[in-house]
Design brief:
heterodimer; A: 314 residues; mainly alpha; MetI-like fold; 65% helix; 0% strand; disordered N terminus; disordered C terminus; B: 331 residues; 15 helices; 73% helix; globular
């Protein structure tokens, strides 16, 4: 139920097989000195341009970090980067929580939803992907096309009937409406990603196992799953981050504050405190981002190096 | 066992009719066994797919059909739906100016924002690709916003950044452009939303970069030998070689942009203001369905959204032949 998806969430994953072309081959042997001098200048300009872009792109995040140390009185008067009188008041205030619910509770709720989503996505998507990639069954092509179709389907078309379903099942104000779809592989992105990954794996090992009498369950569990570990890690990271960021799902289904995950809890700050408690709002926003930023720093390689398009491969 | 026996007979009958082929294919001999294996494969296939099938039918396909039905009814979740035919659709396009405005700003956002975002992504990707080393840090730094850009936190930051006397306003005033706050200004709030979308160019850029790295260097060298300048090389080599990636990013970018919700909700406190300028179609659908309890009407809006997205995808796929060049295609 990753609904937010503006642009950009749609990166698909590929193993890192981009060849870095050797820069030396591109420079011709003639006039090496002039070439090199020109190169140095170009490199310098290149760095300056990129550093400028980096500064612009990262400014909002740096601003957010510094703002968490600003006392409330500075909001509105000092919107620059550095606080005049740095303080930790915002943090103590935020940890007390809001609407009678302590901060750790929102954190815990977010964590349960995100971790549950990861488990659900891994189980259901890998099973479905194995079937699509390795089993030849009647109806395969029709169902595969249907799965690709749901990849392009705007999620909002089903929110009303889904809401009615979960309401009838008496699941409003529980985590089930947020978790159940993950256990049923409704996010086609993950299924598709794993299908592509499994298809790249050589079939020799499955065939050898089959000759030895192994069935699909066995091949799936002992051969395919270990082979696709990198893709499973990428899926886990995305599943975690999307569930962590998801706003519409919890907004629809969770009604009592003690069940709120962080994004909906942030809305409480946002609504209640238009001017008066700006510091707490900004600080709570920052705290909600910390796990994702940590994830990003730790798993950068899986996220960025691994992210490229399957569209490239055809 | 009995089913296997029946199968043998059936296969026997069938193959006797085509006995000419039978001789030329010795493996026909184990056909019953293979049949059985095929059945087992099919059973296994569906077995693995059980969760996905439940999700696909129970949470996607049947709900879609149900929401199509609801779109012809008047329904608040408490009393049963009442059939009203096309009234919801007629209302949308004739007596509901809020819907028309919502559709309009959504289209502007999607059709202006996505190309700008793609352009930024391609530009930065080419810049990074200009040198083959040393871009790793920048690539990661630019990627980060697309990971968090859809979150409530970033929407709150964005609103603060573009508020009156916020960092953006201050910065622009310093160079003599006095626009005031963007958040409360109906003329500037949509550009502000588009800037947020553009800010999240990183994931798209990474995909472009991977595509650029796969363009064979010889093509550029050949073009350079023919005396092609930088712009001409871009038009004649980069764009056609990259067109499958552009197509992919454009398709997913457009579809994703239609679904923008969180930022609009947070920035406008759920109202879609100022003057309805952040009332994107998904937010309008949410308000109608869940705040006003007009679920039939909201279902109709959802179906209009689906049809528009389908039309755009269809147009893209149809025009694909004329501008997307796949490798091995001699055009």
């Amino acid at each position: 139920m990753s609904t937010t998806s503006s642009f950009g969430e749609n990166a698909l994953v590929l193993t890192e097989n981009q060849v870095d072309p050797d820069p030396k081959t591109s420079t011709t042997p003639q006039a090496p000195r002039r070439r090199i001098k020109r190169k140095t200048w170009q490199t310098a300009i290149w760095f300056v341009v990129l550093i400028t872009i980096t500064a612009v792109v990262l400014y909002p995040l740096v601003w957010l970090l510094f703002s968490t140390f600003k006392p409330n009185s500075e909001f509105g008067s000092n919107m620059g980067l550095l606080p005049n009188a740095p303080t930790l008041d915002n943090y103590t205030k935020v940890f007390e929580g809001i609407a009678g619910v302590p901060m750790w509770r929102f954190f815990l709720n977010s964590f349960i939803i995100a971790a549950g989503s990861v488990i659900g996505v891994l189980l259901s998507s890998s099973l479905a992907a194995y079937a699509f990639a390795r089993i030849h069954f009647k109806g395969l092509s029709v169902l595969f096309a249907a799965m690709i179709g749901t990849l392009l389907l705007p999620f909002h078309v089903v929110i009303i009937p889904q809401y009615i379903i979960f309401q009838r099942l008496d699941m409003i104000d529980t985590f089930w409406p947020l978790l159940l779809p993950k256990f049923l592989a409704t996010e086609a992105f993950f299924v598709f990603l794993l299908v592509q990954f499994i298809r790249q794996m050589p079939r020799d090992m499955d065939e050898a196992a089959r000759i030895d009498g192994a069935g699909h369950m066995r091949i799936f569990w002992s051969i395919i799953l270990p082979l696709i570990k990198p893709a499973l890690i990428t899926c886990s990271i995305f599943a975690f981050i999307w569930a962590w960021n998801d706003f519409l799902g919890p907004l629809l289904y969770l009604t009592s504050p003690e069940n709120y995950p962080l994004p909906v809890a942030l809305r409480l700050y946002n609504d209640q405190t238009s001017v008066s408690d700006y510091g707490a709002t900004v600080t709570a926003s920052f705290i909600a981002l910390i796990p994702i930023l940590l994830f990003f720093l730790v798993f950068q390689r899986f996220l960025v190096d691994g992210v490229a398009t399957q569209g490239l491969k055809g | 066992m009995s089913t296997t026996a029946t199968r043998v007979i059936v296969t026997g009958e069938k193959s006797s009719r085509r006995s000419v082929f039978r001789k030329s294919r010795p493996e026909r001999a184990d056909r019953p066994g293979m049949r059985q294996r095929a059945t087992r494969e099919t059973l296994m296939g569906y077995g693995f797919l059980v969760p996905w099938l439940i999700g696909f039918f129970g949470l996607t396909l049947i709900p879609m059909a149900y929401s199509l039905y609801l779109s012809f009814t008047s329904y608040n979740i408490f009393s049963p739906p009442k059939w009203i035919g096309l009234d919801n659709y007629v209302r949308m396009f004739t007596t509901d100016p809020a819907f028309m405005q919502s559709a309009q700003i959504t289209l502007i956002y999607v059709l202006v924002g996505t190309p700008i975002m793609l352009g930024a992504a391609l530009g930065v990707a080419m810049l990074l690709n200009y040198r083959s080393h040393g871009g790793g840090f920048f690539r990661s730094a630019f990627y980060a916003p697309s990971l968090i850009g859809g979150s409530v936190s970033v929407a709150i930051v964005w609103r603060a950044m573009f508020a009156s006397d916020g960092p953006v306003d201050d910065g622009l005033s310093a160079i003599g452009i006095d626009l005031g706050g963007w958040v409360g200004n109906p003329a500037l709030v949509l550009p502000m939303m588009i800037l947020l979308a553009v800010w999240m160019f990183g994931a798209t850029m990474v995909i472009f970069l991977a595509g650029l790295k796969q363009i064979p260097r010889e093509l550029y060298e050949a073009a350079e030998m023919d005396g092609a300048g930088a712009w001409h090389r871009f038009r004649a080599v980069t764009l056609p070689m990259l067109s499958p990636v552009i197509f992919f990013n454009l398709l997913l970018g457009l579809i994703g942009a239609f679904q923008v919700f969180t930022a609009a909700y947070i920035i406008s406190n759920g109202t879609g203001g100022p003057a309805g300028m952040t009332n994107f179609i998904t937010l309008y659908l949410y308000k109608r369905g869940f705040s006003d309890g007009q679920m039939g009407y909201a279902a109709a809006i959802a179906w209009v959204l689906l049809i528009v997205v389908a039309i755009i995808a269809f147009i893209l796929f149809r025009t694909q032949r004329s501008w997307v060049h796949y490798a091995g295609d001699n055009r």
